[in-house]
Amino acid sequence: MMTPKYLERSNDRTLAPDYRGPVFVWDIDKTYLETRFSSARSVARIPFEVAVDKLTVPGAVPLLRALRRGAGSTSAAVPLYFVSGSPLQIRSVIERKMDLDGVGYDGLTFKDQLGLFLRGRGSYIRQQVGYKLRALLLTKQREDLRVGFGVVAEEEEAGAIGELPAVEEEGAQLVA
User: Fold this and answer.
1) Which of 34, 71, 92, 161 could be bridged to 55 by S-S, CB 3.0 to 4.6 A?
2) pTM above the 0.85 mark?
3) What is the pLDDT of residue 100?
4) What CA–CA distance (Å, rounded) separates 25 from 136?
C-alpha cells in the first residue's frame, strides 16, 4: 500500500522483527487536544495558536505517558503513533506541545489539506474517516505488525472506523 500524496507521515522508530508488544495509534483532535470545530471562527484560530495555547483533554497526558511507559517498573517505550486530520502546517506546534506535555511518540501523520486544495480536491479536506483508516492501515502495514494494535479515536469517527471490514480483519482494538 503506497502512501497517498495527501498524507504527511513520519516514523521515528523501526520496531524489532521480534517485537510482540502492544502498539497504540491515537487521534490528536478531541482525544489528546481540546480542538474546537464548532464554528468557523474557532477553526480559523487553530493555525495561529502556539503550543502553550493548546489545551489537552483532561486525563489524556497521564494516560498517554502510562501507555508509553507500559506495565512494570521499567519503561517499555511502548510504540505510540498519532494521526491527525489537521493540516501538516501545524506539525511543529503539535510536536512542541507534546514535548511540553512530556508525551513521547514514534510517528505522526497529518493530512496535507493545502495540497488537496491545490490539486482541486477541496472536498476531501472534510472527509476524515477514509483518511484516518488509510493512515491506520499504513502504520500497521509499515511495521508488519502481528501484535496488539490499539486505536483511540473521537467518538463520532470511532463508530464509523470500527464498523469497516478492514479494521475488523486487522484485529485492531478500537477505543472511543
Assistant:
1) 34
2) no
3) 97
4) 7
